[in-house]
Amino acid sequence: MTWSPRRVLLAALCALTVVAAGTTSATADPADPAPPGYDAVADLAAMRDAYGRIIDSGGQLQNPAYLPALVKESTVVTTAQLLQQVADPTHLAVTPAVAVPGWNVGNPLRAGWAGTRGRMQQVSFTNRFGALLRGTLYAPLPGARDPYTGARLTGPYPGVIITPGSVGGSQGMYQWLAEDLAERGYLVLLFDVQGEGTSETLPHTGDPLFPFCNPFAPADGDPALGTNQMTPCPGVPFQQLANFTTGTVDAIDFFLSDANPWLGLWDSSPIPHPITPGRTTRLAIIGHSMGAAAVSYVQGYDDRVATVVALDKLQQAPNGVAGSVATTPVVPALALQAEYGFTVTPSFLSGGSSLVPAAGNPDPMRERASGFDGWRAHGLDTMLVVPHASTHLDFTDIPLVLPASRWGQALSSVYTQTWLGHYLQGTTPARALLAARFRYLEPVGHGRWKKVTLTRDALLSTRYCSAYSLDISGHVREDLDIVDVGC
After folding, report:
1. Class level of CATH domain 39-211+238-479
2. How confident is the model over 324-341, as pLDDT tens digits?
3. Signal peptide position in this chain (predicted)?
């Protein structure tokens, strides 16, 4: 890579911005010299790469199709959401996705996917607290072929449920994964939990005295299941683990019920040789952020789940979330995790978790410790992938304003496709997960998808270890430090 003065200046400005932001979590003595061995050039390069989705070649600012598509799709999505609220005024969603234009637009370069590469249908269902949750089903087109292999896709299909992240996470941000999976032969439900996206904010009790919630009632839920409520008003505030655990289970209930208009597309036949005894339902759950914590919990006690994919982060030990406790690893798990959180901090502020920066140098074991090592200790197939310069936002599509690496999302998609191809579809050998190169189809606008090749080792973190422990043809194969970071 050639570093122009403009790029150096941009990286330096990013560094100054995030250092200022980082001082809210950890304060360093400005008189202290840089840590021994600190490589400022490499650190600035990594921080610059963490904005690659915006500024790199083919990124949001470099693709001339992006901004016109963003304006068009933002208008369409925002108008549709407002009309939906007007048509159903008794189930209000008071959320950023509805209030902020463009919040829920996702990747506008994917416009035109429905009807050409797959199909989608909006759905709604009521959660256990009476709140209306909204979602979207995704499936292959009738008679479609797999865009990677050319094989004919014939239903019925294995099921996948995607739970969004917190802090205003909403469906549009995760369309990339739902669409990528649907066109490979899955029936996918992507939904908004209570209080996020286009789902209703308040519950309904049916009590004429307290129609939404009884402020004098005891808080509901079970701490051991991650479902304990913070207040007597279930689902309020939305920023609580229980919204995501209960939302995931309620989404499973809907998906497997006659209320699902596409239930006939789901393969209800039992898995003949399940990886986990008793887990024979052809269903995977995927979650991001708080949703990742939720699916880590739910797989432990919902026997309808065959495998799990956690997008930053797979959780095994308590993770600092209020009320969180240790989870119980039961099914194979893929962990896709990030180097940075919401802000891009210098390496000497990497002593904490990615989400809460603190003074200290990167610990190569950090991402392994969150969940991978616990799953491996239980003798379960598990894999951890940490993309280079990735941020917590790599797993969402957000226009222009927040950091994300150029290829972290694409790498996460191909690993998810490969993982589910083996553990859910049963069509992909486990050794495919060990490949050094992957093909990916990236949307570039105007209804076009471009073939790209992703080289694994060049796209993995050199700070935090990626790893795997997998049963391949009856033998456990392990690499606990794929690119020799230092674990």
Report:
1. alpha beta
2. 668 999 999 999 999 999
3. 1-20
